[in-house]
Predict the 3D structure of the following.
Amino acid sequence: MKKTDCLYIQMLGGFSMVYDGKPVAFGKGNQSRFLQLFQLLMLYKDTGIAKDRLIEAFYGWSEVGNKNNSLNNLIYRLKKQLVAAGFPDEDYVTVKNGKCTWCGSMPVWVDALEVEHNYKQAEAAEQDAEKLHYYKKVCELYRGELLPQLASEDWVIVESLRLKGLYETSVRKLGEMMMNRREYQQAYQIYSEAAAFYPFGEWQIGQAESLMQMERYEDAYKLYKETVRLYSEELGLTQSQHMLDYLQEMSGKLLLQEEPLEEIMERIQEETTEGAYYCNYPSFIDTYRVLCRVADRSGRSIFLMSCTVKQMQIEKEKKNSDRVAEWLKKSITAALRRGDMYTRYSKSQYLILLTGMKQEDSEVICQRIRRKFGQYSGTDGYELSFAIASAIKF
């Protein structure tokens, strides 16, 4: 059998197939039941798939009278679709004992099955060199979520999560092995690819560790700042305690080049701006803890305030969801003093650190923020809620 006689199928990160060296397409778009049936048969090419599962996948919620007959008809018509697309004229599916099995004569290569095969080989291998080889293959083959164009289908969700789990386990084990072998650049590459697929999988921890082992402290610091921005500012997600702990640890390990004090002061000097000071969440935590210590000694008041925005109009929520948090950020900056500090805690909530004030003054602050927010949002479709508590425990 010539190599070009093989059927090559990609399902990870998108769908495509090549037969006899040429791209193949059939059915009418990604939602075609013929195409989905073919994809399911390919995913279970080695084991077959129960007819009940296919019926559930295609007719589970429909009002089709005889679902079994409908599936049999779909299987029969699939052959005609494949032949029309350029495949040999032969039977492709056998149905026996309630199971459907692919029986085409040509060799078939499926990236999703290759990921699973190499993962099993890695887990079964006894030598580290073998494990390393097969885990690398898993990472090379994985190109993202299974069939993203069908991401809402139940059967795709189940299989996609399973394959994602194999990939993430491979990344962790491969990364650990490379770090132990002092192959820091290769480890960094593996973690970076994983972070590109799943930015919120905390793969930045592995990236940073690799960079610091290579003494690339400036790059590690840039990654640290970008990670904080990605979580806190861009998507408004709160870092897990594991990520927070590591960001704190990493910031303590980052070492810059020795410089005269005057140059250091110039580097860290804030540009003159009006209004409250915004900082990322990890920095806010450090500042909060330091000021609490100072307040314990000086007796100066310190309060923590939360400000949460809720959208009351569904249509406006869909239209303005990406802008509301920015409006609130501008409102807090403009409404507070230069000595006050705040951070973004979640997609819809900010934390504000207030010093040297009385709790009864908080209502004035809330009204200022509401007034400023109204100017930016220009609508009454939003509601701001506040909570305040003393940071000093008596």
In short: The first strand starts at residue 7 and ends at 10. Residues 154-180 form the longest helix (27 residues). Residues 59 and 67 are 7 Å apart (CA to CA). The radius of gyration is 29 Å.
